[in-house]
Design a protein that fits this description.
By secondary structure, this protein is an alpha/beta fold. The protein has 15 helices and twelve strands. Bound molecules: pyridoxal-5'-phosphate (PLP). InterPro entries: Aminotransferase_I/II_large, NHTrfase_class1_PyrdxlP-BS, PyrdxlP-dep_Trfase, PyrdxlP-dep_Trfase_major, PyrdxlP-dep_Trfase_small.
């Protein structure tokens, strides 16, 4: 018999994943090319060639124990140092290897840091709409998720409500910019305001409030958009990075945490996060791919493909009559559903073989998420269905 807690988790298991399964079912009936699956953030762009070259060279030429052996729980020292140097070059920071812990993707990093920080009942604040797994990650360590309601005009963080909802039990605030599911990027002004609120509240309560910056989409921005590096604005920031999207390597499970020395209790946090990596059963992040990413720090995926998809989808949906904010980053469009009940809307989209994720999965009903990290032909094939769907709703009015 499984645990009561897991029974609940299984029941509430990710809607996104369920949609993905549904996509496979529909593909078996209608043929893969006639199903338009926008459910999962699985990058459609190939990893850079440098990744493949690095894999081949490392497994061919480097010493086996060096590549495949156990290591420090926090990861290979030279890999961590290279990442620190790379970050310093881009962001004018002053990190070194003892600020970096290699993680099993962003998901692994978030779990490590939450395990490190949370006492049962500690509050973790998130801004709706948010990546739905945050709820499970906080719950893994008996944390309590506190949700700030969305600002549906801008999808920027609602700082007034944040100020009201921070308490003496707040241990962490998670931000995710560029954002899944809205694609918005928080401006520098917003980050400064957010930092001010946190500074004020941690002084008031006399406890550190850690800002966890979940950044799997940092490099996925379109045009000249500036994505501030949060450790430079608020000293109790911990960054969770991932190569899942930036190098199109989601299955390889690789990322890192940045724990700056300025963060309160830095030494304890760093040591505890290394132990958390071990005792969560990760032991260490996968070894081969650590070595690979360290060689590919300047490599990029071709995001022009996502940009073309973004333009085509956004312009077409707007033309049909849908309403949504133009995303500046990531590869998602968050669209207002044509009826209040976003789940019912997504069910109806399925009749056109279009798979979307309802906004409730992100704590924001009345919207749906379209992951446009798909082939252009998927978007072209889906557009007539989106148009018909809009017309159907219009006819019923
Ligand atoms: N955080 C956000 C906002 C995400 O969208 C995702 C994955 O889609 C993750 C974390 C998990 O990323 P990873 O695959 O690196 O664990």
């Amino acid at each position: 018999m499984i645990s009561e807690k897991m029974s609940v988790m299984v029941k509430n298991s990710s809607i996104t994943r369920a949609m993905f399964e549904e996509g496979k079912r529909l593909a078996a009936i209608y043929g893969k090319e006639n199903v338009y699956d926008f459910s999962l953030g699985n990058p459609s762009v190939q990893p850079p060639v440098s990744v493949k070259e690095a894999v081949i060279d490392i497994v061919t030429n480097e010493e086996t124990t060096f590549v495949h052996g156990y290591m420090n729980n926090s990861g290979y020292e030279d890999v961590r140092e290279n990442i620190a140097v790379h970050l310093n070059k881009i962001h004018s920071t002053s990190f070194h290897k003892d600020n970096i812990i290699m993680t099993v993707g962003a998901a692994g990093g978030l779990n490590v840091i939450l395990k490190t920080l949370l006492n049962p009942g500690d509050e973790v604040v998130v801004f709706a709409p948010f990546f739905g797994e945050y709820r499970n990650y906080a719950d893994n360590y008996d944390g309590k998720l506190v949700v700030i309601s969305p600002d549906k005009e801008t999808f920027m963080p609602n700082l007034k409500e944040l100020e009201e909802k921070l308490t003496g039990n707040t241990k962490a605030v998670i931000v995710n910019t560029p954002n899944n599911p809205t694609g918005v990027v928080y401006s520098e002004e917003t980050i400064k305001e957010l930092s001010k609120v946190l500074e004020k509240k941690q002084q008031e309560f006399g406890n550190p409030i850690y800002l966890i910056s979940d950044e799997p989409y940092r490099e996925l921005v379109y045009g000249d958009v500036f994505v501030p590096y949060l450790t430079k604005y608020y000293k109790n920031t911990i960054v969770g990075y991932s190569y899942s999207k930036s190098l199109s390597l989601p299955g390889e499970r690789i990322g890192y945490l940045v724990i700056p020395k300025e963060a309160e209790d830095y030494e304890e946090i760093f040591a505890a996060a290394s132990v958390a990596t071990r005792i969560l059963g990760f032991v260490n992040a996968p070894s081969l791919i650590q070595r690979v990413v360290a060689r590919c720090l300047d490599s990029e995926v071709d995001i022009s493909v996502y940009n073309e998809n973004r333009e085509l989808l956004y312009n077409s949906l707007k033309e049909y009559g849908y309403s949504c904010a133009k995303p500046e980053g990531a590869f998602y469009l968050f669209v207002k559903t044509l009826e209040e009940d976003d789940k019912a809307f997504c069910e109806r989209a399925k009749k056109h073989n279009i798979l979307l994720v309802p906004g409730v999965a992100f704590g924001c009903a009345g919207y749906c998420r379209i992951a446009y990290c798909v082939s252009k032909s998927t978007i072209e094939g889906a557009l007539p269905g989106f148009k018909k769907l809009y017309q159907e709703y219009q006819e019923e009015r």
